[in-house]
């Protein structure tokens, strides 16, 4: 059976199509299965807790993704994963709930695996393949699953994980008003903080509206049920047809509701004279605590450690790393 799959044109074509199309399709499906719209709506919101990370100065949490992302760019890929371990330390201190932890794993691990796989398909310069596609897949412009591509995807996945983990830490532990205050204190454009807070506020609302819209369509008789078994190809074809037909019925109301919400938010901002003065006095000022000094020491330790590695020529990034 193995020889029939790997040493015949039909078997190689089946495996090639599976590697090319089926595995990438499993990534959004697994994301939807593990998180879903309701879980995504609840996870992308501020979670009030009394932890050290929550009590930190918002300015430290705003610059944290920029610091970690910059440090990861200069390091080689193996040292990037060492930096990733330090990026996990704040999450251990945060102790997120089981729902947030599952969302965190799906938001980081699933896209990282997808990036590794996609680079294995499209990235290759030394013609070393784990599996070479037959001529029946030549129309895709891809030769096969390469060893060098998987290595390159693994390198880039480390930097992706660091950026996402540090950014989600800001989302989960910082109120939107604190983000605006931090941007104001850091001499950044206040509109930047307003845009970040508005995005964090309206993204969960968008998924909530999408969930309500799907439920309303089902109440009115539209069928979104999937086939029970994967080998019912005729039922799957009918299912995809129903989904494609329903796309305009979903996207148009969702777009109109988003535009209405944006218009109302703009009127509220004008009514509160947003942008009329360079400084706003209605925000709660943050007093420096020992947690802030410890966080500053943590930042200094990471920056000094990376600079030391680079000066010694240990963690220098190669041409492909």
From TrEMBL:
It is found in: Membrane. Its main location: membrane. The keyword Transmembrane applies. PANTHER family: PROTEIN ABCI12, CHLOROPLASTIC. The keyword Membrane applies. The chain crosses the membrane at residues 14-32, 66-91, 103-125, 239-257, 296-316. It is a multi-pass membrane protein. Keywords: Membrane, Transmembrane, Transmembrane helix. Pfam families: CbiQ (PF02361). This is Energy-coupling factor transporter transmembrane component T. InterPro entries: ABC/ECF_trnsptr_transmembrane.
